[in-house]
User: Fold this.
Amino acid sequence: MVDLLEGIATTRAIRRFRPDPVSDDDLATLLFAATRAPSGSNRQPFRFIVLRDGPRAHEARAVLGRTFRAAWDTKRAADRYDEGAGDSPKARMARAMQSFVDSFEQVPVVILVAALPWRQLSFFEGASVYPACQNLLLAARAVGLGGVLSMWQAMAQDELRAVLGVPDRVVLAATIALGRPAGAHGPVRRRPLSELVYEDGWGEAPAWAADPPGTRFTSAGPGPRASHGRRP
Ligand SMILES: Cc1cc2nc3c(=O)[nH]c(=O)nc-3n(C[C@H](O)[C@H](O)[C@H](O)COP(=O)(O)O)c2cc1C
Assistant:
């Protein structure tokens, strides 16, 4: 079993999967870990709908596949993914995304993560649901599986609710695709700590905020859209 900190540092988004099925035992392990996550007042407003081979799962996966392909087509153009040079992180991500959406229906397991709104739906609901998603992805890493979180189910909420019998007040907050990675897990790359950590106010990087020796970095991502300006 991987050490916790090593697991955190190597849980990358996995978008290409081997066809092997995911066992019930592994799913139980992952969902146990997911449900250990903290939530506001320990309300545990997360629910997980596992989609494998049942008839409704097939229908929901087809809805998701269609939705994901449309969403990626839009994002690919809007965020200018095709401008990424041949082997740049951006170009690699675009290729992985394309193959992910093209074969979405073959992903071994898809988990829809639902949020039960407490009083009025607000920003806070997500804060009590997404830690569980990350726990799930870390647990997947621990048992040799991998996955990726996406929000594109948001574009098909009503259709998915109808297929899966989800009550109207429940929000489908995330989709997690899971399986055995076709490639290898590897170190996550991020910006240097000195760009991300401040002490005593905005913008002052403390000397102690240093990455471990050998850390490799990236600022990958689509970059700002022309109309959005630069992110802080
Ligand atoms: C809120 C959120 C939304 C995301 N949406 C998508 C998505 O729609 N499609 C996708 O393939 N990956 C999605 N991801 C995965 C990110 O692209 C991924 O975490 C990021 O690029 C870092 O990848 P890495 O950990 O492999 O470096 C999402 C992640 C988060 C946290």
Observations:
- The longest helix spans residues 55-78.
